[in-house]
Design goal:
277 residues; 434 Repressor (Amino-terminal Domain)
């Protein structure tokens, strides 16, 4: 596969290969120079950059350190490694890592990048108990989520609106859920993160009925993402995404204010802590 024609959208492995080459070239390193720094041969580097060979995690971690890639390479590696991901999601994560702004709406659970580890682990454990995934697949998804959560440190603006039911669904039990809500309280104090709650009182007037994510890319274009039970959909049609964004704007206005949302999160957390005693 010629590296000049390698299509990053063709597979998660191809996306990794293209990003590795770009990151290396940004540092003005030849394959030989880069190989010496990560202690792998230039032949190995060439094979990885043309998607002829899958990289090892050890290589990826060394490349992350040498290239100061900010977690993007490891994120793409886990996207490739994790065969349990639904179709469409690896393509979304490739866009997510580039985003300068992320807007999220969730109806059933806390958005992944805002999840506490125990909350995520409890959810994945339930999937394993139901026989819908293996323990290995669940662990790989948790590793991918951990890599994705680095967005919290490098993305300038993250705005999340969650339905009130997200706060009341005690995933992992009262103790785990209280810890998750405490984590949301902590995150809401960060200057680049806004968390709002869409209360039940909105009823049929809630503008969005399904979870959706909107990503603003460095060139100021916007893409959207949503899922069915079978697959994820990365929406790039400008008119469609603009319609989603308009509904999201109305949702932000109709949801509780940042301060009132934090107060609701705190109140639910304190009630859970009382039950956990």
């Amino acid at each position: 596969m010629n590296r000049r024609t390698l299509d990053p959208t063709s597979s998660p492995l191809a996306a990794f290969a293209v990003q590795l080459r770009r990151s290396r070239q940004d540092k003005e390193l030849t394959q030989v120079e880069f190989g010496a720094l990560v202690r792998y041969s230039s032949v190995y580097i060439s094979n990885v950059e043309t998607a002829k060979q899958a990289p090892s995690l050890k290589f990826v971690q060394r490349a992350e350190e040498v290239l100061a890639a900010g977690g993007s390479l490891e994120l793409l590696w886990w996207s490739w490694k994790n065969g349990a991901l639904i179709p469409g999601f690896p393509e979304y994560t490739a866009k997510e890592r580039e985003a300068i702004a992320v807007r999220l709406f969730e109806t059933g659970m806390v958005p992944g990048i805002l999840q506490d580890h125990d909350y995520s682990a409890a959810y994945e454990a339930a999937i394993v108990r139901r026989g819908e995934a293996t323990r290995v697949q669940a662990d790989e998804r948790l590793n991918l989520l951990s890599a994705r959560q680095r967005l919290l440190d490098r993305t300038p603006a993250i705005h999340a609106v969650v339905d009130e039911g997200v706060l009341l669904r005690p995933i992992g039990g009262s103790t785990v859920m209280a810890k998750q809500l405490s984590h949301l309280e902590f995150l809401s104090c960060r200057p680049n993160i806004v968390i709002q709650v869409a209360p039940y009182a909105l009823a049929e007037d809630r503008p969005l009925s399904h979870p959706v994510t909107l990503l603003t890319l460095p060139n100021r274009t916007m893409v959207g993402y949503t899922e069915t039970l079978q697959r994820g959909y990365l929406e790039q049609d400008a008119e469609t995404v603009a319609g989603w964004a308009g509904k999201y704007d109305r949702l932000q206005v109709d949801a509780l204010s940042r301060a009132d949302s934090l107060a609701m999160i705190r109140a639910v957390r304190k009630e859970l802590e009382r039950h956990a005693r």
